[in-house]
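Students often ask why we bother predicting the structure of a whole assembly rather than each chain alone. The short answer is interfaces. A chain on its own may look different once its partners are present, and contacts between molecules only exist in the joint model. In this exercise we take two input lines together and write out one structure for the complete complex. Read the inputs first and try to guess which parts will touch.
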Amino acid sequence: MKMKKHFMTILTVILALAMIFTVVACDKKPDEPKTTDPEPVKTDKPAEPTTQASEEPEPAGDQTIHVYTRDSASGTREGFEAVIGFKDKLTEKANEVASNGAMAQQVGQDINGIGYVSLVTNFAENNLKPLNYEGVEASEANVINGTYTLKRPFCFTTRAADDYKSDDQKAIVAAFLAYMTDSKEGREVVVAAGGIADVEAGKPWDELKKDHPIVDQDNSGLTIVCGGSTSVEKCVKASLESFQGIAGNVQFKLDQTGSGDGWKRVLGDDKDGPNASDIGFASRNFKEDKEPVDTAMRSEEFCQDAIVAIVHKDNPVSNVTKDDLFNIFTGAAATWDEIGK
Amino acid sequence: MENAKENVMASEAKFAKIRKRRRGTDVLFRNLFRIAGVIAAMMVILIIIFVTSRGIRPFLGSAEERVNLKYFLTGSRWRADQGIYGLGFVIINTLIVSVTGGLLALPLAILSAVLITRIAKGKLSIFLTTIVETLAAIPSVVYGVFAAGKITVLVRDLANVFGISTYGGNSSLAVILLLAIMTYPTMTTLAVSGIRAIPKELDSASLALGATPTQTSFKVIVPAARSSIATGFTLGLGRAFGEATAVSMIAGNALAGPSWNPFDITRTLTSTMLTGLHETSGVDYEIRFSVGVILMFVIVSMNLLVHAAKRRLEKKGGLSA
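Now the answer. The structure tokens for the assembled complex follow.
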């Protein structure tokens, strides 16, 4: 009996202490959040993220940057890593998410998080702040006028003009490229599929069509074969599907394996192999020295892909440079203090 | 006389015919059922053969693409971008979150089952049963959306109380809580049916000997139903190990581990298989089948372990049910 009483008393005291400790810890937090920070030197830094006005107060324990990345099969990740230049060097502490939507939601819940999404994401709805890149706001207009540089071009090249199976094949490929690249209608389709192109500057298809009489005949016996970059697949597929309806039911085949195969399969070693294609795509510019495109029938950039670095809306950071992003995503910068505000 | 004899012979021939026909039908149906059984068994074998044959490919390919089997089983880094596939820490993480989640749900499930079968009367009991059944029927992606919106926020706020910063609440703890919620209905349903199957005499005898209803519930009825409870635990663990959609939404898919800290992000076998599955190709695609083989292996060994524990328990205690 006595033992039991003793035990109960001790238990009560422990519980009471635990509660007091919790309350004190709660109260202390806003005053000195640095006590739990692994980085001790940071006295000259302004406002903590916690002092920002917020609907749901989030006493962030420290300023450790939380890196969010897409899964390794993602085209957005491929593009982001290529532009920032940290392929294979991603920090070990990264949180991997499966989709653009998951990225937006999770960074929106993490005041210390940073991630990247495509430009079409709804930022306000997810509590996100799109970061300016090198001082330029991420907007469609800035991508088109060339000032926003966290982007990559989607390019295509074709077989040499005298290297097609038939004249009809050559004509239908030329007609498709005119539709996708030059026409207003084609650009609208590309933009709807996530690419960025200047729709207003496009010409009406009815006008362009006059140079491509092939589209008025039955083309169900012809197949346009595309190869190269996987990132362009969505835009190209959407364009081909809408082109099919206005070009006599022309067939198409997409075999996207990576930018490296784009040039190879129309002008390089594989151009007469089993994977030979009519149009080769790359989500970068073709390399002038290794991938000469002067012999191609047509070789151009048809749209752009912009990526936006995002943080929680209460994060005081609003601009990042290429070096900042490199340091953050390779783990060289571990806390927000190291990032210019 | 002659006529009668003929009659008898005729009817005998008729019966023999019927008997023969009946035997024919019998054989026909017996074989039909046999075929059904073989097809069912074939499914299991086909799945195992298919998954395994794809799963061993990454370890057989050309020298520069081959994945090191030893590192695959014991490694502590999963960097698909660098071609490094170490699954060891993922196996440990999966065991931690699934078993902890299951153990968290087990007492809740037992208490709920006692409430439903022995304490709640009439409509309340039916109402509670309906709730448990509804929980069991909710699709996992719905659980996932709930977890990503609510459980992670809860975990984040809890971590903030301790001054720990989390990845917006994506953590082992969030996965554990989610799996506890998801395994709870399976365990409860099995425990309820186990308790319902216990003969009334056991209950009456205990009460007649002077035990209170509570003592009867916990000292007689629950131990007597432990076989069903163990089965429920096994099935629940199976769901916890196999849950992919909801878990990969909140696990954070850590690139290295194992994650001992409950507030740290984690990676499970299923989330490894699922994340990026639709867009990938080559070794990164094939390796998911290898992970599937490991997952099946882990689940089977876990089931055997629980069964062994159950058998030992049964040997120890005198009661069996």
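Check your guess against this: Residues 89 and 188 of chain A are 37 Å apart (CA to CA).
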